[in-house]
Amino acid sequence: MKKLRNAKGITLIALIITIIVLLILAGITLSTLAGRRGIINQAQNAEKEHTKVALEDITLVTYQSLDNKGNTDTTKLEQGLNDIGATIKSKTENKWTVEQNGYEFEINIETRDVIAKGETGGTGEGIEKLVDMFRQAETDGCTNEDGTCDNPNHLHVGDYVNYQNPTTGTYTITGDKSGMDANQTYSIANNQLNWRVLGIDGETGGLKLIAGSPMKLNNIDGKNDPYLYMYGARAYLYGIQEIDKACEMYKNNHAIKARSVKIDDINELAGIEEEDISTYNIMPILGLGSVAPYGSSYSYTGYTPEGWINGDGKTTVTGEAKGYAYFSNEITSSVSSRSMSSSGGSSELPVIPMPSTRARKMIFDNLDYTHGKDYWLASSGVLSHPSFGYANFAPYAVCERYGVTMAGFSIGCRFSSGGYEGGDLYAVRPVVILKSDITKDQISKIADKTEETWNYNGGEWNVQFKSI
Q1: Which has the closest alpha carbon to 148: 236, 208, 87, 209?
Q2: How far apart are CA 325 and CA 336, in angstroms?
């Protein structure tokens, strides 16, 4: 028993000594890692010192780039940055973003201030999803205004990506849906399109792409006419669904859906909410038969689009006037006297905002009625004309009118509750919505493409503006 008691005592003493030794070792380890001279602290100090050295180098180069008037010589600055191994990620008029050894810095060209913005992930491997790259560019305030941003973590409105067109697909818009006396067919074989970033889809969270140019209609009777003709009540009731279906051909296995571009896409790009529409809506300003304000109610005796097609008689036509249109650029001397006089002679008409000049060109460039790339929008609206006692129902389009480009209510292609129809011709421009988890390994940013310049005369083939 005595021997057992002695053995137990020795065991307890040994255990206590062991615990004391472990505590001492733990203290040494913590001190080594986190102490004032610890490994973690030294690593942090080394990182700060590394950033400080890079900051000093870039600041020195910035000041060495001043000309004899004290202004920054950007050519000399670019050369100096290249000499110290710094990469220029983006440029605006007054701010450059550069990267050196995995750290990002912002140079104010005017004040010569250099600000360290932190780690960038070096080679850009830290950001994989396209939606995250797009949001990162927004967070960094980079619009890629001049198309030169090569930050591997950035994706911007207007950037081209290598989305793959499906190899087969055909869709025919029949005359009973378009309001014409002929069927009109699209084929992917004749429309191998380029794709550009449009933004984030609010419904799915995926990246939206828009075709760099509209689709072209297949040749009919040997004529090379790219425009889809639509007319009257049928265009309003069925046309916008039909152009959506034609664009569905472009959905591949990376996409959730494909459809036509809509006025809502332009509103999202411009940052226009429902309550802002009236601010930019130019329809009341242009007159067009005393257009009632956006959102006002109407009630007339006349024909509804459905009743007109079915051959029904007049009835009470009621609803809310939600037709609108925007100007995309400043008014010039070529604006018609009608539009100027109806606005009281003022040339200060509202212009829809855009996030960048590059974005504006992507949506509104090369528009020229019956010659350029005017295109339908899969959206529609109603204008109320109380002084004339009728409402106009029409699909929307992006087109050139009054010497400026416009987006919204199609004045030519409409149905009037008074019993009148009109037709028009524009192209069709697809939009593709990608799955939200698509990465840059699946679809990558590529160099800008050169889009074809259209030069067509609309109306070359014999399709009549009349309802079936």
Answers
A1: 87
A2: 17
Element (H, E) at 259: strand 255-260
Place of tokens 């040494």: 28
One DSSP character per residue, 308-329 reads HHHT---EEEEEE----EEE-S
pLDDT along the chain (468 residues), means of 10: 49 74 64 51 53 77 78 85 83 81 80 70 64 93 90 94 95 94 90 96 94 86 76 95 97 96 96 93 74 94 96 95 87 45 52 92 90 94 93 95 84 93 94 95 93 72 50
Please enumerate in sequence order all residues whose Cβ is within 8 A of that of 202, keeping only pairs 6 or more positions apart, or say none. Answer: 268
Nearest residue to 197 via CA among 124, 123, 142, 273: 142
User: Residue 10, class by beta-carbon neighbours within 10 Å (0-12 exposed, 13-18 middle, 19+ buried)?
Assistant: exposed
Amino acid, res. 327: F
**pLDDT at residue 413, rounded to an integer:** 93
Rounded to whole angstroms, how far apart are CA atoms 243 and 2? 99
Q: Which two tokens stand for residue 10?
A: 């020795």
End-to-end CA distance of the chain: 114
Give the CA angle between residues 225, 226, 232 to the nearest 5°. Answer: 95
Quick one: DSSP state of residue 235? I
pLDDT at position 121 is 44
pLDDT of residue 32: 52
> Which pLDDT value is given to residue 340?
42
For 54-60, which contacts have Cβ atoms below 8 Å and span 24 or more sequence positions?
54/86, 54/100, 54/101, 54/103, 54/105, 54/116, 55/105, 55/114, 55/116, 57/84, 57/86, 57/100, 58/84, 58/86, 58/98, 58/100, 58/105, 58/107, 58/114, 59/112, 59/114
pLDDT at position 337 is: 40
Tell me the CB-side half-sphere exposure of residue 288, using CA atoms within 13 A.
Answer: 22
Q: How many CA atoms lie less than 13 Å away from 409 in the CB half-sphere?
A: 25
Cβ contacts of 74 within 8 Å, gap of 6 or more? 65, 109
On whether the pTM is more than 0.85, the answer is no
pLDDT at 468: 42
Rounded Cα–Cα distance for residues 441 and 69 (Å): 47
Q: Delimit the domains of the chain by residue range.
A: 50-156, 228-446
Would you give the distance in Å from CA 21 to the centre of its chain? 64
For residues 421 and 415, is the Cβ–Cβ distance under 8 A?
yes
